[in-house]
C-alpha cells in the first residue's frame, strides 16, 4: 500500500530547493531520512500529525526538525502535516480550545473568542488579556489533540502495514 506511494513523495532535491529549507539541506544527506520502512513511516506520520496541530507558520519547520532529531522519513513527516489547512484549522482549533477548557476548568462557559483588532487603542493590553484567557486552554488542547492524532496515526500505519504484509505473504 505505502510502497506504491513512495515514488509520489517529493525528493530531497525538491524539498530543499525552497529558500526556507535550503539552509538545512546538508543536515539531511544520510539515507535514514529517506528510508522507507514500516517503523520510519509510522514515526514520520506521527510526527506530521502532531506538528500539523501546531500554529500554521511552524508546522513544516517543526516536522522537519523532529524528523531530523528522530532520524526518520522527511517527506512523509512534512506531508502528514497537511491535514490542517484553512478549511480544517478553525474547527480543529475550536475543538482544541474546548478540550483544553474542559481539562483545565471542567464545564467552562463559551465566551466570545474574538481577538482584538491590531491598531485599535489598547490593543497590546487587550491582546495580552485575550491570550491569558484563551491561550492556556487552546495550547493545552492543541498538545493533547496533536498527541492523540500522533498515537492513532502511528498505530494505524503499523497495523495496516503488517496486515498488508501478511496478505502479500499469504498470496
UniProtKB/TrEMBL annotation:
UniProt keyword list: Membrane, Transmembrane, Transmembrane helix
Alphabetized InterPro entries for the sequence: DUF2062
TM stretches of this protein: 41-70, 82-105, 138-161
Pfam families: DUF2062 (PF09835)
Domain DUF2062: residue ranges: 22-168
UniProt protein name: DUF2062 domain-containing protein
Species of provenance: Paralysiella testudinis
Amino acid at each position: 500500500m505505502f510502497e506504491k506511494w513512495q515514488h509520489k513523495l517529493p525528493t530531497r532535491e525538491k524539498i530543499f530547493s525552497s529558500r526556507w529549507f535550503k539552509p538545512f539541506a546538508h543536515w539531511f544527506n544520510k539515507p535514514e531520512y529517506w528510508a522507507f520502512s514500516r517503523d520510519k513511516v509510522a514515526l514520520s506520520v506521527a510526527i506530521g500529525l502532531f506538528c500539523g496541530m501546531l500554529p500554521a507558520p511552524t508546522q513544516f519547520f517543526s516536522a522537519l526538525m523532529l524528523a531530523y532529531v528522530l532520524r526518520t522519513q522527511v517527506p512523509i513527516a512534512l506531508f502528514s502535516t497537511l491535514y490542517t489547512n484553512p478549511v480544517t484549522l478553525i474547527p480543529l482549533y475550536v475543538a482544541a480550545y474546548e478540550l483544553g477548557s474542559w481539562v483545565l476548568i471542567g464545564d467552562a462557559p463559551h465566551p466570545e473568542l474574538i481577538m482584538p483588532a491590531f491598531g485599535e487603542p489598547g490593543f497590546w493590553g487587550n491582546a495580552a488579556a485575550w491570550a491569558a484567557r484563551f491561550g492556556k486552554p487552546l495550547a493545552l488542547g492543541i498538545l493533547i489533540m496533536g498527541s492523540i492524532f500522533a498515537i492513532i496515526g502511528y498505530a494505524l500505519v503499523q497495523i495496516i502495514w503488517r496486515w498488508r504484509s501478511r496478505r502479500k505473504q499469504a498470496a
